[in-house]
Amino acid sequence: MSYNLNTMPTMNNASKLRIAKTDLRTSKADLHLSKNQTAHDSSTDKSSDTHSANTYSESYFDALYNDNSDPWQYQTRWYEKRKRDMCLAVLPQAKYANAIELGCGNGVFSELLARRCQAMLSIDGNHQAVQLAKRRLAESTHVKVIQGVIPDVLTTNKSSFDLVIISEILYYLSTNDIDTVIAWIKQNLAVGGTLLCCHWRYAIDGFAMTGETVHQRLHQAFNKVNNDANPEQEQHINTRHSTFTHQSKIIDSDFLLDVWQHTSESVAMQENLV
Q1: How many CA atoms lie within 13 A of 129 on its CB side?
Q2: d(Cα 232, Cα 211) in Å, to the nearest integer?
Q3: Which helix (H) or strand (E) holds 143?
Q4: Of 115, 87, 100, whose CA–CA distance to 247 is shortest?
Q5: Of residues 267, 180, 261, 187, the one with CA closest to residue 226
């Protein structure tokens, strides 16, 4: 999944993975290779350089999508299907009114998300990815796919969303841009709304951030919110409106998956089970 914004995702949007130069016999090495080979082959002179921390690396994603409609093999790898199924399973609500997916890629995950959303905005920074997603979602008239670079595109999307999907894109951003995305989420995620973030754990050639460092930053931002209220002001604060509850945390061997909800209640509490 590459990134650009308008909306979500996917569970959709971007790319990841270092080519294992030695033992390609293992399944993880295999996955590293497939996810990075295209970009590596087309820009070998840049493989040891860190992409500009302040600009969208258009050439990196252009190389990935060059003559390849599915650079990360979303449609054929069990790893990717398993991850998508896990993301869908941990969403705390069955249906959402207005979702946004940051980094929708070719729309494979977007197609599944669309079935649970009344309206959805999917964003990606790569032109080819956007065209592929539009074709895949052509019959889903309630979904809008746009091209835009994150976080810049977010400044034009100030709507209230009850689902924000960020999958496999934040490690392509600088720390300042990640903080901009976090600030945008806090301002635009509706009360009761859901934030789902999922990222590959390994290093990616040419990029400073990893899934580990990205999710550390997310934990600091959203788990900290619950402790920010001044006790002397507590009687004047509606905690349901100011609190983010960490509903799910999955530490897979290969990826991290976290879900926060803009409420103080667990899913069981919302269903009046406790």
Answers
A1: 39
A2: 37
A3: strand 143-147
A4: 87
A5: 261
Round to whole Å and give the CA distance between 244 and 260. 6
Residue with tokens 């977010």: 154
- Structure-block tokens of residue 202: 């390994």
What pTM was computed for the model? 0.78
Convert the pLDDT of each residue in 163-197 to its tens digit.
999 999 999 999 999 999 999 999 999 999 999 99
CA 223 to the chain's CA centroid: 18
Structure-block tokens of residue 22: 């030695």
The candidate with the shortest Cα–Cα distance to 145, out of 117, 105, 180, is 105
Strands 189-200 and 161-167: parallel
Distance of alpha carbon 162 from alpha carbon 65, whole angstroms: 31
Q: Side-chain half-sphere of 172: how many Cα atoms within 13 Å?
A: 27
